[in-house]
Amino acid sequence: MRSGTARTPHVIHAGRPVKLVGPGIIIRSMRELSWSAAEKKIARAAFDRAYERECQAIHREVQSMLRNARDCQVIWALEEYLRERRREIDQKYDYRYSVLPLLFGRLYNESWLTEEDLTGLAAEKLQLIKRAPAL
Predict the structure, then answer these.
(1) What global pTM score does this model have?
(2) Which helix (H) or strand (E) holds 41?
(3) Environment class of 62 (CB within 10 Å of its CB; exposed 0-12, middle 13-18, buried 19+)
(4) Smallest Cα–Cα separation from 39: which of 131, 110, 104, 134?
């Protein structure tokens, strides 16, 4: 293992390798989670709401920076802030079903998602989301 690289521990459970995702959470591969049509709609709506909330927060921060500007250097500070936030957003928001529980866990921990946003997902997924470590 390379220095600085964390690996998800694997164990054998019921004769199959499984991942330990957090304290007391054992799951099969994330790819093995199935999503019903209703869950897919809920997941897409939750994903879009979290993205919108985070973008609105960025918008408010930009407005605040402009209001509090003392000189024209704020232009370059804004450019740097927006570039960094864009990079972060692009890396974070990945709509693949195989990673959604971990992403939703992160968004839940960061308060971009609420329990209400996730209502209707299977109990197994909700447990993964609520216990997912902050990434």
Answers:
(1) 0.76
(2) helix 37-67
(3) middle
(4) 104
Residue 13 pairs with which residues in a beta bridge? 16
Nearest CA-CA partner of 17 in 7, 26, 25? 26
Angle at alpha carbon of residue 127, lines to 123 and 132, rounded to 5° = 150
Chain centroid to CA 9: 21
Up-side HSE of residue 27: CA atoms within 13 Å toward CB?
A: 24
29-87 pLDDT, tens digit each: 566 789 999 999 999 999 999 999 999 999 999 999 999 999 999 999 999 999 999 99
Domain ranges of the chain: 34-131
